[in-house]
Specification:
The complex is a heterodimer of chains A (195) and B (177).
Chain A (H helix, E strand, L loop, with lengths): L1 E3 L4 E9 L6 H11 L9 E4 L5 E10 L7 E8 L7 H7 L5 E7 L5 H17 L9 E6 L9 H8 L6 E3 L8 H20 L1
Parallel strand pairs in A: 2-5, 2-6, 6-7, 7-8
Antiparallel strand pairs in A: 1-2, 3-4, 4-5
Chain B lengths: L20 E3 L1 H18 L3 E6 L4 E5 L7 H21 L8 E5 L3 E8 L3 E8 L4 H22 L5 H4 L2 H14 L3
Amino acid sequence: MFINLKLREISLKIVYYGPALSGKTTNLERIHLKIRPELRGELISLKTREDRTIFFDFLQLEVGEIKGLKPKFNLYTVPGQAIYASSRKLVLQGVDGIVFVASSQWSQLQENVNSMACLREHLHQLGINAASIPLVIQYNKRDLPGCLPIPVLDKNLCYNGVPRIEAVATQGIGVIDTLKKIIDSTMNKVRRDIC
Amino acid sequence: MNEPSKWISPFSGSETMKRCSVLSPQFLDEVEKLLDRFYDMTGVTIVMLIDVSGQLISYKGNPYNVNLSNLAALIAGDMAAVNEMARQIGEPDRFKLLFHEGENHIILISALKGSFLLVSIFKTSVQIGLVRLFTKETMIRLMRIIEEIGASDQVEQIVDASFTTSLADELERAFGE
């Protein structure tokens, strides 16, 4: 978190992490679409020719002034494909809160588990205690027929009562709730740490 | 501060441990003076100081009205990627300087103490030797400011319960709900 007392700005870095094709970029696209235009920046996407994220997507949001400070949220996604593991770690530098976007497809269960393990490893390498960083898990693609039951996803991904939200990002369902939850968790963490 | 160990500033602690950075007006005034001087003496189009995680700290000049937050995120990603390349090939230290030259513009990125990046963007007609000279000088002065002034400790006065409640209300408004 960055607080600039001259410009009266407070900035948080939120990273959307998860396996390939789980819907991380779609989350940012829906947020970009739903927020009032004057409060958002351009959605920057570093993509391959095949439209897959190669490094990260970036979107800055801001909301109205609070106590003389303007909150800004820098949202990033990571590339989900296995070959971009190094890039994923780089995007996590300076992170304040993480949204783990899991796919609800049966075929993606192991990918979700592997990606969660990768996240923990990356945080460890960056000197961040995984248990200390605010985390929200989004179970995306809940509209797909025969998707994984929630208890199965919980058993494999959701540790220690981490908040989780069901979503259909392509329709915008659960996207804003996820964002609000991670911002709330992150601000509460900040308060807990300073009190 | 109640628990200083948890709130290590970018000026004094390990980069990987910092969680909250409060930049004081005094620090930012000094940085602004340095960037003003850099801008006036070199003729660059934009000079900015950013954090390695992509946070814009201060800048001078922006005639094209570029979104500098976007630019800062991309530059931080650029430097992070190059440093990872350095690590992969066994380079013992981080790369300290990146140089990108286009047909009309040059971007020069210098790393400062592993925490900050000084970025200058200038036309190819500008003397690069002069920019590099002032980059070096500015880096030395910046390091001095960082060591002398350090960070503010006003976080607890800013982020209280009423702040988080108001933030939730503002988010509702932002999404028109």
